[in-house]
Amino acid sequence: MKRYNPKEIEPKWQKIWEDEKIYQVKEGPNKPKKYVLEYFPYPSGAAMHVGHVRNYTIGDVVSRHARMRQYNVLHPMGWDAFGLPAENYAIKSGIDPAEAIKINTKKFKQQLMQMGFGYDWSREIDSTDPNYYKWTQWFFTLLFKKGLAYQKESLQWWCPNDKTVLANEQVEAGKCWRCGSEVEKKSLKQWFFKITDYADRLLGDLDDLDWSEAIKTMQRNWIGRSVGAEINFEIDGSKKHLNVFTTRPDTLHGATFMVLAPEHPLVEDITTPEHKARVNLYVKNSLTKSDIERQETEHDKTGVFTGAYTVNPTNNKKIPIWVADYVLMGYGTGAIMAVPAHDERDFEFAKKFKLPIVPVIRPLSSRSESIDCFVGEGLMINSGKYNGKSSSETREKITAELTDKKLGSEKVNYKIRDWLISRQRYWGSPIPIIHCPKDGAVAVPEDQLPVLLPKLKDFEPSGDGRSPLARISEFVNTTCPKCGGPAERETDTMDGFACSSWYFLRFADPHNDQKPFDRSKAEYWLPVDDYIGGAEHAVMHLLYARFWTKVMFDEGLINFTEPFTTLRNHGMILAPDGQKMSKSKNNTIEPDGLIETGYGADAVRIMELFIGPWNQAANWSMEGLGGAYRFLNRVWEIVRVYQDSAKADPLSENNKEYDDRPIWLAAHTAIARVSEDLSVMGFNTAIARLMEYVNELYKLRVNHWMFADSGKDAWKFAIENLLKLLAPIAPHVTEELWHELGHKESVHLSDWPVHDGQYLIKDTVIVVVQVNGKLRGQLELPLNSSEEEVVMAATQHDKIKPYIEGNKSIKVIYVPNRLVNLVTS
Ligand code: ANZ
Q1: pLDDT value at residue 780
Q2: Which residues contact 465 (CB under 8 A, 6 or more apart)?
Q3: Residue 228 CA, ligand 1 centroid: distance in Å
Q4: Which atom of ligand 1 is nearest to the CA of 361?
Q5: pLDDT at position 707
Q6: What is the position in ligand 1's atom list of the atom closest to the CA of 332?
Q7: Among 565-579, 642-656, 790-804, which is the least confidently predicted range?
Q8: What's the count of helices (H) and strands (E) in the chain, helices before strands?
Q9: Is the pLDDT of residue 385 over 70?
Q10: According to the model, what pLDDT value does residue 60 have?
Q11: Distance CA 391, CA 381 (A)
């Protein structure tokens, strides 16, 4: 047998696996299914580095392990190729985006292949392929027909650098999530998906998902459900009403002023002539601020009085109405009742403008009626008939009372906003809508889909609020599908997140040209059992995909309501110096080079997993990679020695009988432990156990001749199972050695071994030896040794002898299999 040379064996097996299609699957009733999926990558210009590769390595081990446990495993791969990263890359490098995608996906695919990842490539999808985006458009028209896609003119986040609008989720602390530029607000007519209709279900169904609590909490906060009341206040001297949303109707007696958002339509109506000029100026100034700036707590509160008053229904007192920008128009009713004694923002405001502060709740733990702000629950004070009652009870009572008097009602509010889906960029799926002067917005009929994205020479965004497609009259001008009259096509494209909201379904039936997918195929494979990826998608992709899945369920397209049963977020790989790897920092490490230098993909895979727990960040290390390579060499060598031994001439000495139990014990222990570790994704500990196991086999080899008759079966078992246990992690080297042993079928299609508990029972025990109650030594003795045997062994032991010498009578206290105490006198 030759030496271990990954450069030779890895490409060889990759080709054989592809030719023999060992990862291609079909729906089948005989085996349970498992769908393992990693986020499909966007093939931007930069190649994948070892950080990206970790994600796919984890998915690959999970899917190979499942396949060996006789699951019918779907493990597909594709390209999320529409969207800004690909387009920006194309602009920068001056290549047509479609061309750039071709080059980049080829590169990515080659990178994935050389890592030995077992994908069913017959299911490869590309979101920019018209056969794919035809169905993305079809879903758009479905949402449109269900009233879940609509167009609205409103102020939107605008990225001046990328020259497009952004969804709320894509603005992070006032900056564009992609390029980091400060975003602006622009009034534009945009397309939205009505995700708010699904807020309650998106929230409720989180409970049953096997996802990390961190991600679930981020989704809960993003959806932001608040239960409270809407209260209607009369405006003094006017027929108009002022409606507010509050989560604390219990504090109504303490409302001492009202605040309107500057954009609130009532501002214009109610402001008295003498306050007009100041209010107008204030409103104008506040419109230049972002919502985030407006809500910053460290800023001094600003505001103006309108001159108008409402009436507090509890005591008929007049309350002044102010305008202040800390109240946002986009939430609740855009107006609040301010309770400075119990709300921090109102408290700051009241102090600054010298408005009354009336406490109505006192904490249970103190008797003082402090005028500092207290935001918790407690007992009511200054609240008439409610005094002495708990604030939570009062909350319900006041809401009921207001409802009776038709002054208010219970109300649930959500922070989540509808999903802004239109983009003024070229590289996306066209929105399949035709605008007709007579019929308005009309969906493109199914038989005219897809609306093809035309090839453009100049696809740079114009920045005027329209996409480059608006410059192409052949694209724009068309006829109305309803009346046949002249009409114009929508020129915005869809956000890339539309494509990724259903791709996991397409993998179940990727070549269907009649439907997005066949229902029975989707229902066979989905939901995804293990979804593996970074945590960066917490509130975008993962929320959108859940929303689309629920819409499809409602439409009767599928029988499940959640796309991803289990979500696993892997930890990042950092550069050796602990920095985040990125092209701009020039510190990326790509697997290609490591494979090229001779370490091979199997060693890189081991390193990706052995570097630390899979869900924690870790620094890449070259020394570690060397260690992984040496380990694989040791595996190679032990199999080689075993092979050579089997061929050797049986010498008389080798037919000696020997006890083969330690070999069985080592093998079954390894099977038990590695299986246990892999079942909980303990990849690093599984590898550590395999290393221990290999060490043990080397030790055993010294006394237990591999070619002696009495040990043959045990050694065969030990070596073959070493290869099986290592196969999901290091697929190439194990496949090569497996075939060296004479197997014809792939090790990856073999059965995962099961340990036999009877071999794990050890036949020796450790007995602790005490002299006069003090620990003096330990003995390894046969299980169930008699008292006599134990005392004999103890008294003859070098370490224990000195303590008992010269003592005539020794009393013995013996706890079988555990402890012996020799009491001298
Ligand atoms: C009176 C009150 C008394 C409030 C009190 C709080 C404490 P969440 O939990 O985020 O839903 N609010 C309502 N609409 C607002 C808007 N458009 N802009 C800014 N603030 C607004 O918070 C709901 C609370 O935030 C509401 O309850 C309201 O203040 C304020 F002791 O009403 B509260």
Answers
A1: 86
A2: 186, 188, 424
A3: 9
A4: 31
A5: 62
A6: 14
A7: 642-656
A8: 26, 33
A9: yes
A10: 98
A11: 10
Rounded distance from Cα 336 to ligand 1 centre (Å): 7
Nearest CA to ligand 1 atom 11: 226
Q: What is the DSSP string of 281-293?
A: HHHHHHTTS-HHH
CA of 337 to the centre of ligand 1 (A): 8
Q: Looking at ligand 1, which residue's alpha carbon is closest to its atom 22?
A: 247
Looking at residue 341, its pLDDT comes to 95
Cα gap 406→383, rounded to integer Å? 20
Residue nearest to ligand 1 atom 31, measured at CA: 342
Residue bearing the CA closest to ligand 1, atom 27: 246
> Tokens 């000195």 identify what position?
802
Query: What distance in angstroms lies between residue 246's CA and the mean position of ligand 1's atoms?
Result: 5
Distance 247 CA to ligand 1 centre (A): 6
Instruction: Identify the pLDDT of residue 703.
Output: 67
Measured in Å, residue 343 CA sits from the centre of ligand 1 at 8
Ligand 1 pocket test, candidate residues 226, 291, 343, 399, most atoms within 8 A of CB: 343
Nearest residue CA, atom 18 of ligand 1?
327
The DSSP 8-state label assigned to residue 575 in this structure reads P
The C-alpha atoms of residue 637 and residue 171 are separated, in whole angstroms, by 55
Single-letter amino acid code for the residue at 148: L
Pocket test for ligand 1, best of 222, 227, 230, 246 (most atoms within 8 A of CB): 246
Smallest CA separation from ligand 1 atom 29, residue = 246
Percent of the chain residues topping a pLDDT of 70: 97
CA distance 451 to 444: 8
Q: How far apart are CA 547 and CA 195, in angstroms?
A: 7
- Which tens digit of pLDDT belongs to each residue from 328-367? 998 899 999 999 999 999 999 999 999 999 999 999 876 6
Joined tokens for residue 3: 């030496």
Token pair for residue 101? 């995608």
Question: Which ranges constitute the DSSP H helices of 611-764?
Answer: 622-647, 661-679, 683-703, 712-726, 731-740
**Token reading at 567:** 């979500």
Residue nearest atom 1 in ligand 1 by C-alpha distance:
246
Which residue, judged by its Cα, is nearest atom 26 of ligand 1?
246
CA dist., res. 517 & res. 506, Å (int): 6
**306-330 tens-digit pLDDT:** 999 999 988 888 999 999 999 999 8
Single-letter residue type at 272: T
Whether 404 contacts 396, CB under 8 Å: no
pLDDT at 316: 87
Q: What confidence score (pLDDT) does residue 163 get?
A: 85
Helix ranges, 500-581 (H): 503-506, 519-525, 541-554
Cβ-contact 178, 85 below 8 angstroms: yes
Query: Do residues 368 and 378 make contact, with C-beta atoms less than 8 angstroms apart?
Result: no
Q: What is the full DSSP assignment across 781-792?
A: EETT--HHHHHH
Q: Which residue has the tokens 């869809």?
A: 494
Say whether pLDDT at 648 is over 70. Answer: no
Decide if pLDDT at 649 tops 70: no
User: In this predicted structure, what is the pLDDT of residue 461?
Assistant: 81
In Å, how far from its chain's centre is CA 820?
A: 55
Residue 517 has pLDDT above 60, yes or no: yes
pLDDT score recorded for residue 760: 82
- Ligand 1: residue of 225, 244, 245, 260 to mutate (most ligand atoms within 8 A of CB) is 245
Pocket of ligand 1 (CB under 6 A): 226, 245-248, 251, 261, 327-328, 331-332, 334, 336-337, 339, 342-343, 413
Pick from 248, 349, 383 the residue to mutate for probing ligand 1's pocket: most ligand atoms within 8 Å of its CB.
248
* CA separation for the pair 704, 700 (Å, rounded): 6
For the entire predicted model, the pTM comes to: 0.85
Q: What pLDDT score does 704 carry?
A: 66
- Residue 72 CA to ligand 1 centre (angstroms): 52
Q: Residues, the chain, total?
A: 825
CA distance 56 to 24: 18
